[in-house]
Amino acid sequence: MSATMDTESTYSGYSHYSGHSKKAHRQGRDRHKSPRSKDGSRSEKSVTIQTPPAEPLLGNDASRAEEGQDDNWGETTTAITGTSEHSISQEDIARISKDLEDSVGLDCKRYLGLTVAAVLGLLVFLTPIAFILLPQILWRDDLEPCGTVCEGLFISVAFKLLILLIGTWALFFRQPKADLPRVFVFRALLLVLIFLFVFSYWLFYGVRILDSKDTNYQGIVQYAVSLVDALLFIHYLAIVLLELRQLQPMFTVKVVRSTDGESRYYSLGHLSIQRAALVVLENYYRDFTVYNPALLTASKSRAAKHMAGLKVYNVDGNNASGQSRAMIAAAARRRDSSHNELYYEEADHERRVKKRRARLVVAVEEAFTHIKRLQAEEQQKAPGEMMDPREAAQAIFPSMARALQKYLRTTRQQQYHSMESILQHLSFCITNNMTPKAFLERYLNPGPTLQYDRDRWFSKQWTLVSEEAVTSGLQDGVVFVLKCLDFSLVVNVKKIPFIKLSEEFIDPKSHKFALRLQSETSV
């Protein structure tokens, strides 16, 4: 009953704060309207994309000062609304629309390639069967009788076709992971090789068997068996080219994120640039911490504050060189003291983070103490007091909401965690009997991109920029860039050096030692 009352008060406080935040946002928009109207060109070339106010969690804009926040807010609400703004130009909007149009072409190209591969595969599997059945249909009465050896070849063809079908399904019929800008060269070469191979067999079959109506049916069946054997060897070649060739590491790539400089190293084999870019992106979503543009606003605001503090007054309007010297001197004095400001700002931020972290850990541990898993016999004794994991999560969430929202706001993670996602994670932890430390692991340290919902990702569509052809193989010194809307990944390729090892034999009998005693040494 108390949990129900807390939930009702939570929703009432949530709606009140939502209306207040919308009013404040409207006032801020009116206050900034006049400067934009003065610069007509800027208002024409910029647009602001805002997220819906009900989506983000608990948090204001990350650039808001900590001192201006209401410390008593969490007592009446568990989540607040906010707007996450990201300004881009009309050129970026045009580029996005162009990328969407290009994606339609990529889909057509992908389906066309799948259609060609499916038709060719169907032709390959039907060709040996057609070689065996056509003589039976066209000139059955003139054929020589098929003996035991010929009937055994039927079983051989059937099992070889079954093995080829399973191998082809396992190697080629997979869910595509990405749309590459160019075709896969080795796969295209294999398709061309298979087409030429099957066409050659059909040409020989039509000239030497169909035209002459060969009566040696056992020879015709052996001809079909040789085709199936050759197709199996081509499948082995496909495994070597598509799977085994890239397994041996030959290159080391360094991936650097352009905004914050976070980097990782990976080992790759013989791959083309576009397939190496695909491997880099797969590892990026798993290894790199999620991109958080709010962490970059502090340095930008600090630099803007320093530049805004420099003012030079021209009294007589003629001393231009004196103005420049005064500006340089003021900038030098400001630069000499800026490192102290940075030091104290970072120390104060670390102190606040540790303080909020300690409060969050205590609040979560106290909340988890109110949850007790009921055994089978206890469930029969008190059926009215039982709750499912979702209800239990909703019951204990208000007691930790204030500490959690303050910590996420201090560490600028509030845009990645909605209230619904936190409740789902809390319900998951309660269901699997996880500890408070396991629940907090997601929030205390930023995780990889795959940990968060797709609508929280800042990188979904990428552009590969390379001076070399994307179908060419990796080489030492090759550099390519993977760009998305907000940042880019710079990839530098280095070849693994050739290592020469030498051997030195040590005789086990040579391990002999002598004890040296001195007069002052006591043994």
Automatic annotation (TrEMBL):
Tree of life domain: Eukaryota
Biased composition (Polar residues): 1-10, 74-86
GO terms for cellular component: plasma membrane
Comp. bias (Basic and acidic residues): 36-45
Pfam families assigned to the protein according to its UniProt record, in alphabetical order: Strabismus (PF06638)
Residue ranges, annotated region (Disordered): 1-86
Biased amino acid composition, Basic residues: 19-35
Keywords per UniProt: Cell membrane, Membrane, Transmembrane, Transmembrane helix
Primary localisation category: membrane
Residues spanning the membrane: 111-133, 153-172, 184-204, 224-244
Annotated PANTHER family: VANG-LIKE PROTEIN
Family as reported in the entry's similarity comment: Belongs to the Vang family.
Record-given protein name: VANG1 protein
Species the sequence originates in: Gymnorhina tibicen
